[in-house]
Each structure stands twice: as structure tokens, then as C-alpha cells.
Amino acid sequence: MKIGEKHYRTIWLKEDNPLIVRIIDQRYLPYDFVIEDLQTVDELVVAIKDMHVRGAGLIGAAAGFGMYLAAINAPKKGFEKFIQDSGNQIIATRPTAVNLIWAVKRQLKLINKVSSCQNKIEVALKTAQKIADEDAEYCKNIGKHGVKIIEDLSVKKNGNTVNILTHCNAGSLAFVDYGSATAPIYEAFERGITLHVWVDETRPRNQGARLTAWELNEYQVPHTVISDNTGGHLMQHGLVDMVIVGTDRTTYTGDVANKIGTYLKALAAKDNNIPFYVALPSTTFDWEMKDGLKEISIEERGEREVKYIEGFIDGKIKEVLLTPKESRCVNYAFDVTPARLVTGFITERGICEANEQSILAMFPEHKPRPFRLQPFN
Ligand code: MRU
């Protein structure tokens, strides 16, 4: 991703010490740019749980590097148990994004195939890097496919501004690079298409106001931050041409789990005949889940994130109380948008419809396995 004149990924190995994994600590954005060094599984687990890193693709990549940290820190005696326990610990950090469990399973499968500790470490490193490289490549391809939708809208509007609404942050910061929802936007902007992005602030953690807005500023893409309740009004007045969001887990039948509030945007888009696209790498499809509402586990986070709001004052990030101190708050982090409200999926292979047949035609190597096997006991 572009930060000033430099290109960064959101996770990488320290240049002069490959035993250290580096991340951009997103808790400080947009006020400060902080890089954090991680050396142990425990540190990585905290980084995912407390959202120093977040977003489906990035926590998948972080899980991949976490398994590498597990391998380099594992004792020779009890190596396998340490790796297995570390995998369980990483999976337990956040329940909704499927990339997390997918990356740990991929690592375990390959690490278990070789026998010496040294070989296991080498495999874990290679796999972590491969997961990260693939994530970046898939997002780049999502941009190449998704840009066609924006180009068509631009032609339809005789070159007038294409207005795109997005929710939360499914940008470069949510992946290793480029982002899913933002990749077509960046590609269109680079091709000179006139566009503007409506950025939902995305309470309670404000990933839109803080992260998406920061990213779009870095890329110099025209945008406006709006409060979460504004989208419907804009749609009714012809000020939104399309919606693009990301997803944390999508069933093979097309039900989409994404940041809380996505469902309401999809309903408003449907009511106003506005295309509602979900951009995702194939790693975010769950090939075992059929019914998103019944089966996807929705993370519930602490009430403090709702009760207090965080901002920047006197050179420091501070929290202020928002509600009466006594009021109870509840904090569901995601909701499920049923497939019937989704116009299409923008994937690394192309665009498909939000139904089982179309998704499986795009990814025929994935046979749905509706019975969820519990890999770790
Ligand atoms: O809770 P987060 O910030 O990890 O949630 C992830 C998200 O940012 C969104 O739901 C996003 O749109 C999908 S992640 C690519």
C-alpha cells in the first residue's frame, strides 16, 4: 500500500532479522504510524485479539506468520504439541473471519508432512510468505475484475463522477496489500475514472472514519466520511451508484458476514435498485457453511467499545464516555447479509452471482462439505 512515497505491506519479516514479524499497529491510525515487532505466538495473539491487526485477509496472513513464530519458538522436545497448541490459541482469537482458521489449517497440514524440526521451520516460513503473497495477488486481481463495473458505470454516466459507498475497512489495511473492496476503486482511480467514495464511519470502532479515510487520503482518492445512518438517504437521492463491501466469511451459497451494519446498507441498496457488490478473495469463502444466518458465529466484543468513543486530543489518543455510565451496551461485531441482497461477488478469478451454482462454477475445485469437522479438540 502507498504510504507517502513508500510502498508497504501490512505484515512482513524484519529486513535484518527474519525471527521478527513486523506489523502496522492499526490502533494508532490515522493519528500516528506505528510499526510493531512480534516475536512470540503470545504477542501475535494479543495483536489479533486487540486489533493491532484486523480485517479478514490480514488476520489470515497474521495467523500464517503466527505459525512460523510457533515453529521457531517450539522446544525440540514436544515440538508438535507446541505447534498444535499454538494453532488452537491463534484460532481462538476471533471467531468470524474464516481466513484465520484456514491459514492455521494450511500451515498444520504442511508442517506435519515433514519430519525434522528444521524442515518444519522452513516449511512454516515458506507457507507464511506464500499466504501473504497470494493474498496480495488475489486482491490485485480483484481490482482488475472489479474495475470493469466502475468503468461501465462511468460510461453510463457520460464520464460524470461515479459515487461508490463502502462500509468498514476492506482496504489495504484489512489485507496484505490493495484491499478487496478498495482494489477496484484504486484501479479505477489509476485509470483516470472520475470517482468519489462515501465512507461509512462504522461505529463502534470507526474503521471507516479512521482507516478507510486514512488510506484514501494516502492514495488521494476523493472521499467523504458519513455517519452510519446516512447511506439510505444518499441512495434515495441518487447520490450512490454502487456499493462495494468486503466480507469476513461468505458461505458457498452466497450469504455474507461482514461488519455490523452491512445488512442495512444492502437492504437500502435493494430498495433503491443500486448494485451491491461484495469483493473477496476465494480464501474468504467457507466451503462448509450453507446457511449464513444459522451457522456463522458472530463475534461479540466488549461493551466499552460502544460506551466510549476514542479520538485524538492534545497530541494523545483518548477515550470519552458517550452514554450514561449506568446504561448497558451490546457490541455485535458482524451481521449476515443474505445472498438475495447481493448483486455479485468480485473475486480474483472474476465476477460471479451470489448463489451456489455460480460460486461453484467459478471455483469448481471446491466441493461443498456441509458437515463441519472440528479439526482441533
Ligand atoms: O472487525 P474487523 O475490523 O476485523 O472487521 C473486518 C472488517 O474490516 C470488515 O468487516 C471488512 O469489511 C471485511 S474484512 C476484509
List the helices and strands and how they pair.
Layout: E1 2-3, E2 6-7, E3 11-14, E4 17-24, E5 35-38, H1 41-49, H2 56-73, H3 79-91, H4 98-111, H5 117-156, E6 162-166, H6 182-190, E7 195-200, H7 207-219, E8 223-226, H8 231-236, E9 242-245, E10 249-251, E11 256-259, H9 262-271, E12 276-279, E13 285-286, H10 292-295, H11 304-307, E14 308-313, E15 316-321, E16 334-337, E17 344-346, E18 351-352, H12 356-362
Parallel strand pairs: 6-7, 6-9, 7-8, 9-12, 10-13, 12-17
Antiparallel strand pairs: 1-2, 3-4, 4-5, 10-11, 11-16, 14-15, 17-18
Helix pairs in contact: 1-2, 2-3, 2-4, 2-5, 3-4, 4-5, 5-6
The chain binds 5-S-methyl-1-O-phosphono-5-thio-D-ribulose.
5-S-methyl-1-O-phosphono-5-thio-D-ribulose binds next to helix 2 and strand 11.
Unique bound compounds? 5-S-methyl-1-O-phosphono-5-thio-D-ribulose
How large, in whole angstroms, is the Cα Rg?
20 Å
Strand percentage lies at 15-25%
Net shape: globular
Sheet with the most strands: spatial strand order: 8-7-6-9-12-17-18
Specify the structural class.
Answer: alpha/beta
Q: Number of folding domains?
A: 2
CATH class of the largest domain: Alpha Beta
CATH architecture of the largest domain: 3-Layer(aba) Sandwich
Number of strands: 18
**Separation, N- and C-terminal Cα atoms:** 38 Å
Mean pLDDT across the residues is: 96
Quaternary organisation: single chain
H/E series: EEEEEHHHHHEHEHEHEEEHEEHHEEEEEH
CATH H-level homologous superfamily name of the largest domain? Translation initiation factor eif-2b, domain 2
Could you describe the largest sheet, including whether it forms a barrel? 7 strands, mixed
